[in-house]
């Protein structure tokens, strides 16, 4: 290992010694360097060699390689004889330093396209020989651009509005900045020239609109803008305005003013009176027709303004009708007032109609609400009547005693009974007082009628209990069923079942059991007599008798 390391150390020492003895390039560091420059600008080709110990730069020369492989002398500098420029480079190139052997950089003050190529910096030293560096130069040309605008006329066919051209190295690129509808076409020619044409269909609204050309090139930080505006010419159009709308005899300082549009702006304005010459005392001053005196009746007529530009002619007419007096002014004023009155009256009628509609809608809404409320009250009142006037009792004393009875002579249906009940209520309470929910007061003589009704029901209940042999619920004889006291709770009768209405006589039934004993007959007779206290026979229909609580009881199955 030691035998290997010793030669390596020796080689390193020899290399350092050679480096100290032999010089090297300070710039450029690479054997081949690429540079880029612009025409008409100064170009610097770097080359600087640092002498080593015991080394001397004797001569420096620059050469250019030709396409065929040959070399062309550019400039040479000797450490004792000075420098020499060759051929077409004479006066166009120079060394950057006054001591070319120390700093051999070459300067081209005004660079041309022909300067593009590969240059060789050749350094001759003593005693170490020659050394070289190559520099490849690329020359760019900033674009030279121009724009040619075309004057268009409205009505022309589709055509070129502007042309943009540019020349440069490398070839530039062209584009258009506009909001106008159109199409561009680009063309490229030899030598780095490019052109672009923008075509459109000319219309008058395009006049003065932006149509800029943009030139793009790698040598530019941003595109170069060539500003331009479209020029579209069109014939003039004229308008006439007057100092008054009421032309009458004696009017002072009357005049007409003619204004003309178009492009180019017309300056030739002419006034005529059709089929007649202008009246005396009337003069045309520029775009105005001035009446220098009071109006006369013969000033009436058709006056025409004629304007011209390079594209065409524009005309407009104005009729002057001179009235004999000034009544026309007041008539027009009165017409305006009458129009205002008509408009105000129409608006008032519309508002009145809206008010009437709102009132009618509100009235109909209230009427409908009141009708619904009455229907609800009627339903509530009918339900209360059916509940109050039913003949059903619930007698509870340990076991419930329920006695059912059916009508013997009823020929009425449920619907007829309901209708009869309604007619009875109407006849009974046609002129009676109403309570707080708009219902007829049933208990007109409340306390007396209530007492009488309670006594009658008490008597009937005792009679049924007396003549009943057994309890329907327990199966015991009626004598063993305790009688319910007067303080027992009163349960309103249920609605009778229409299916239990019979068209023929049938004995009273207690839970479907018929009792033919004399004692039961006496009870049934009492039941019939009790029913006669409330009803009377009217052509085969049971009608309620008038009384404290005259109602119609439906002849259906009753629970007593």
From TrEMBL:
GO terms for biological process: heterophilic cell-cell adhesion via plasma membrane cell adhesion molecules; homophilic cell adhesion via plasma membrane adhesion molecules. InterPro entries: CD80_C2-set, Ig-like_dom, Ig-like_dom_sf, Ig-like_fold, Ig_sub, Ig_sub2, Ig_V-set, Nectin/Nectin-like. The chain crosses the membrane at residues 338-365. PROSITE patterns: IG_LIKE (PS50835), PROKAR_LIPOPROTEIN (PS51257). Keywords: Cell adhesion, Disulfide bond, Glycoprotein, Membrane, Repeat, Signal, Transmembrane, Transmembrane helix. It holds the Pfam family V-set. One of its GO terms (cellular component) is adherens junction. Residues 491-507 have a biased composition (Basic and acidic residues). SMART domains: IG (SM00409), IGc2 (SM00408). It is found in: Membrane. Residues 1-23 form the signal peptide. Residues 474-520 are annotated as: Disordered. It is a single-pass membrane protein. SUPFAM superfamilies: Immunoglobulin. Residues 31-138, 143-227, 236-323 form the Ig-like domain. PANTHER family: NECTIN-4, NECTIN-RELATED. Belongs to the nectin family. This is Ig-like domain-containing protein. It comes from Oryzias javanicus (Javanese ricefish).
């Amino acid at each position: 290992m030691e035998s290997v390391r010793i030669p390596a150390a020796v080689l390193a020492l020899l290399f350092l010694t050679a480096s100290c003895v032999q010089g090297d390039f300070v710039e450029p560091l690479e054997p081949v360097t690429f540079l880029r420059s612009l025409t008409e600008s100064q170009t610097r080709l770097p080359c600087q060699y640092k002498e080593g110990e015991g080394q001397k730069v004797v001569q420096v020369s620059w050469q250019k390689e030709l396409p065929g492989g040959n070399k062309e002398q550019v400039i040479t500098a000797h450490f004792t004889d000075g420098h020499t420029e060759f051929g077409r480079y004479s006066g166009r190139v120079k060394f950057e330093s006054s001591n070319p052997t120390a700093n051999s950089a070459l300067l081209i003050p005004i660079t041309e396209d022909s300067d593009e190529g590969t240059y060789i910096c050749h350094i001759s030293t003593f005693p170490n020989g020659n050394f070289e560096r190559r520099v490849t130069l690329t020359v760019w040309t900033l674009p030279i651009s121009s724009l040619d605008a075309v004057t268009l006329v409205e009505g022309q066919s589709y055509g070129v509005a502007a042309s943009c051209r540019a020349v440069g190295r490398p070839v530039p690129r062209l584009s258009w900045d506009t909001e106008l509808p159109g199409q561009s076409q680009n063309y490229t020619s030899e030598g780095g020239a490019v052109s672009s044409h923008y075509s459109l269909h000319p219309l008058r609204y395009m006049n003065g609109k932006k149509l800029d050309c943009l030139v793009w090139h790698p040598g530019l930080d941003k595109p170069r803008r060539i500003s331009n505006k479209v020029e579209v010419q069109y014939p003039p159009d004229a308008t006439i305005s007057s100092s008054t709308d009421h032309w009458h005899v004696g009017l002072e300082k009357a005049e007409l003013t003619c204004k003309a549009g178009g492009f180019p702006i017309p300056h030739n304005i002419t006034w005529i009176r059709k089929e007649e010459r202008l009246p005396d005392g009337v003069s045309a001053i520029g775009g105005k027709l001035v009446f220098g005196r009071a109006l006369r009746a013969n000033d009436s007529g058709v006056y025409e303004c004629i304007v011209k530009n390079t594209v065409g002619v524009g005309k407009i007419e104005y009729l002057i009708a001179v009235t004999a007096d000034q009544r026309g002014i007041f008539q027009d004023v009165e017409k305006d007032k009458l129009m205002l009155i008509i408009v105000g009256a129409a608006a008032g009628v519309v508002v009145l109609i809206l008010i009437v509609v709102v009132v009618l809608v509100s009235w109909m809404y209230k009427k409908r609400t009141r009708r619904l409320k009455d229907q609800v009250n009627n339903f509530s009142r009918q339900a209360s009547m059916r509940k109050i006037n039913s003949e059903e009792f619930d007698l509870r004393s340990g076991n419930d005693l329920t006695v059912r009875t059916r009508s013997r002579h009823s020929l009425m249906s449920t619907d007829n009974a309901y209708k009869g009940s309604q007619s009875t209520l109407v006849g009974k309470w046609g002129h009676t007082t109403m309570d707080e929910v708009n219902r007829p007061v049933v208990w007109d003589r409340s306390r007396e009628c209530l007492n009488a009704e309670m006594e009658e029901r008490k008597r009937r209940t005792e009679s049924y209990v007396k003549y009943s042999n057994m309890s329907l619920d327990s199966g015991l004889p009626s004598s063993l069923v305790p009688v319910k006291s007067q303080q027992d709770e009163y349960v309103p009768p249920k609605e009778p079942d229409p299916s239990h209405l019979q068209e023929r006589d049938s004995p009273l039934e207690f839970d479907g059991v018929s009792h033919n004993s004399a004692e039961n007959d006496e009870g049934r007779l009492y039941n019939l007599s009790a029913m006669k206290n409330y009803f009377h026979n009217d052509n085969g229909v049971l009608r309620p008798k008038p009384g404290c609580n005259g109602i119609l009881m439906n002849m259906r199955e009753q629970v007593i």
